[in-house]
Specification:
CATH topology: FAD/NAD(P)-binding domain
Order of helices and strands: EHEEHHEEEEHEEEEEHEEEEHHEEHHHHH
CATH class: Alpha Beta
Mean pLDDT: 96
Strand order of the largest sheet: 6-5-14-15-16-13-17
Bound molecules: flavin-adenine dinucleotide
Shape: globular
Low-confidence stretches: none
Largest sheet: 7 strands, mixed
CATH superfamily: FAD/NAD(P)-binding domain
Amino acid sequence: MRIGIIGTGVAGSLLAEALLEAPGVQVAAYERVAAGEHAEAGTGLNIGPNALKALRLHMPARHAALRAASLEWRRWFVDLTDGTRLFDLNLATVAEEPGLRIRWSELYRLLRAPAADRTRHGHALEALEEDAAGRLVPVFRTADGVVRDGAFDLLVGADGRYSRLRALTCGEPPSTLLGVCIWRLLVTDAADCPYDDYGQWFHGNARLLSFRVPGGAVYIAGTFPLPDGDRIPEGMKTAEAQRALYSPKNGPPCPAVAWMLDRIEAQLADIHWARSATAPLLRHDPSGRALFLGDAAQAMVPTLGQGATQAVECGVVAAHVLRRGGTIAEVARLRDERVEFVRQFSLEASDTLIPGVDVVEGTKRKMEADFLAKLRKTYTEVE
Ligand SMILES: Cc1cc2nc3c(=O)[nH]c(=O)nc-3n(C[C@H](O)[C@H](O)[C@H](O)COP(=O)(O)OP(=O)(O)OC[C@H]3O[C@@H](n4cnc5c(N)ncnc54)[C@H](O)[C@@H]3O)c2cc1C
């Protein structure tokens, strides 16, 4: 069976590695970016304990490599920007092992390395054709022009949120905006940062989220409601506007927030601005010749840090099924119910980002049994 993987981000890299030696499988991977180009555009991220469990059970070498290049994620606290504590969770109470904190560039470098020899870089999927047997033939745009590399029994779309394979086989998915801006920044010179593990700081429904990542760096993500729901006003992209968003009304910000506000001002030009959006879950095309994994299948809001985490689960589970000659229907059966649960839970957990929701009450609900049971299910019920 000839399997072609489009995109070697999180899900695609793991699948490519696991299929390298699979009996009866010939795998080829195609990646839009050049070899060795692991841009810091994604800055940093936290990966949930459930992804680590999936890797520990099925791909222990990758588990060990990621652990060695990351910091453990053991704690989640929520404060107001004046320092009032609302929530403090030890992840050990809802998970079987810690999550991790890592730089994007490092994550991609470690995941892409094992299948590097089987990956054609600088190949961006552009179009699809069919051979006489009805197999899909991907057409790539490269620096040297248009390239074809034969026909495939199965093409796997692991090409992210704006999946070209999904668009070509099933049409552009509708995107639903949450009505919030989410920006991210990597502070690389952060020796004086006054905190370590994963924290969130609210002022009204605007929220800062931050934690240390390896190499003396700190990841900061800001979230705030968009006044007209879908456009990020240019006026919000200034240091003054950001300072006003996150500063408490009656008194100074706590030391952690004061530190972040200064870093935002110093590195405003480095901030990546985006909008939080979801697309409907779709696992494969109607003909069964294209399978979608990770964001290509299931773009979700990043509130619980489950986007890349679920992409890890997708890569691991799809590899497990395809290695033993299983079908894409089996991948769907193992993944879709769980993915829908996590997507819905991530949306529910986004309540405090939406105007009109009381942040103190909404955050306190996250210490109640119902929320913690869903978090435990998310972190532990892994195939
Ligand atoms: C602001 C923000 C913060 C986030 N924080 C977190 C977090 O803390 N934790 C977490 O778990 N998730 C987080 N996410 C979500 C996470 O980024 C994604 O869910 C995750 O990267 C999806 O992995 P993937 O393998 O599906 O796709 P990606 O990792 O996006 O990989 C897709 C790959 O396909 C390649 N590609 C794209 N188009 C083509 C093409 N036409 N041809 C060939 N190759 C192509 C790309 O170059 C890339 O290598 C966050 C997202 C955002 C926007």
